[in-house]
Write a structure and sequence with these properties.
This protein is an alpha+beta fold and about 300 residues long. The chain is built from 10 helices and 12 strands. It has helices at about 5, 160-165, 165-175, 190-200, 210-220, 225-235, 245-255, 255-265, 270-275, 290-305, and strands spanning about 5-15, 25, 30, 35-45, 45-55, 65-75, 80-90, 95-105, 110-125, 145-150, 150-155, 185. Strand 6 (about 65-75) and strand 7 (about 80-90) form a beta hairpin. Helix 4 (about 190-200) packs across helix 5 and helix 7 (about 245-255) runs antiparallel to helix 8 (about 255-265). It is flat, with a radius of gyration of 22 Å. It holds the Pfam family BTB.
Length: about 300
């Protein structure tokens, strides 16, 4: 399990907190480690209650997820409350939610940002997603090169890889010795991530919120421009990642359309605060943002105050 996959943050902006019902409302679902997660929230008298929800279906097969992290409620002005947690949920658990209570009233504008940072320490009994396309020996008939990664072999077409990636075009079709080899070894790559990368090159519907960040590293490494475009479109129109995560990705990979899309979806000071966040040490998460995005957020905040 990669770091990008087993550490994640769920963020949800809640407005009109004082008038919330006493039954649970939920954020959109987000999958990490092939496990669905949500934020739940409600008002219980003078308490604003937030929930980390593990939505893995109960089955006849035993499974267990061990997590730890921090639940936060951040206000528009940046003040916040936070509580660390350890949360173990299993197929036979009585509860699949972790509740944290915060006293009301919260803020003058009656708005709160729920932010739950999660580290998945271990997962048992939950399988990885099935492969969409087979690059094993069954594909040997249609391949002219084998890419070997940690002992796993991928039977692929040189020509197709070359049309999708300038790296592979140079490596396999140029004057390098690899171009004459039947088996080419690639190092320092996770085979599971490379499987998804290859599926993406073949325009399979393979991207998820769990794998997008790992795949983007390979997309950049191998200079696969069409795959990069598909990743950007996924983040714009399908992903449940927070605006904060999307903006960080937009800056890292120079996705201009994604950046514009995210900024156009920021409509309040609370949305800006959700992007900026607040660390335990009281420093802004925005200090880690690209300077141009930090400048855009500042301009937006001035516009929303006028």
């Amino acid at each position: 399990m990669s770091t990008a996959e087993n550490q994640f943050t769920l963020i949800h902006v809640v407005r009109d907190v004082s008038n919330l019902p006493n039954y649970m409302l939920q954020s959109p679902e987000m999958k990490r480690c092939n496990i669905p997660w949500r934020i739940g929230y409600l008002r219980d008298g003078d308490t604003f209650v937030t929930y980390l929800m593990c939505c893995q279906p109960r089955t006849n097969k035993d499974w267990t997820v061990v997590t730890k992290g921090t639940s936060k409620v951040i206000l528009t002005n940046g003040s916040h409350s936070s509580f660390p947690f350890e949360f173990i949920v299993a197929n036979d658990s009585q509860y699949s939610t972790l509740a944290t209570g915060f006293p009301l009233p919260l803020s003058i504008d009656d708005t709160a940002i729920i932010e739950i940072e999660v580290i998945i320490e271990s997962v048992t009994g939950i399988d990885a997603p099935e492969k969409i396309r087979n690059f094993g020996v069954e594909a040997k008939e249609f391949s002219d090169v084998v890419l070997k990664i940690d002992g796993e072999k991928f039977y692929v077409s040189k020509m197709y890889l070359a049309t999708q990636s300038t790296y592979f075009n140079t490596l396999l079709m140029g004057k390098f010795k690899e171009g004459k080899k039947r088996v080419v070894e690639l190092k320092d790559i996770d085979p599971a991530n490379f499987q998804v990368f290859l599926e993406l090159l073949y325009v399979d519907k393979t991207l998820t919120d769990s794998n997008i960040e790992n795949v983007l590293k390979l997309v950049e490494m191998y200079d696969a421009k069409n795959a990069a475009r598909l990743c950007e479109q996924y983040l714009m129109f399908e992903s449940s990642h927070s605006l904060r995560t999307k903006l960080k990705i937009a800056a890292q990979y120079k996705f201009k359309e994604l950046k514009t899309h995210c900024l156009n979806n920021i409509r309040s000071r609370a949305d800006i605060r959700a992007v900026k966040g607040k660390n335990i040490d009281n420093s802004d998460e925005s200090m880690q943002l690209d300077p141009s995005i930090a400048d855009d957020l500042f301009e937006l905040s001035l516009r929303l105050r006028s």
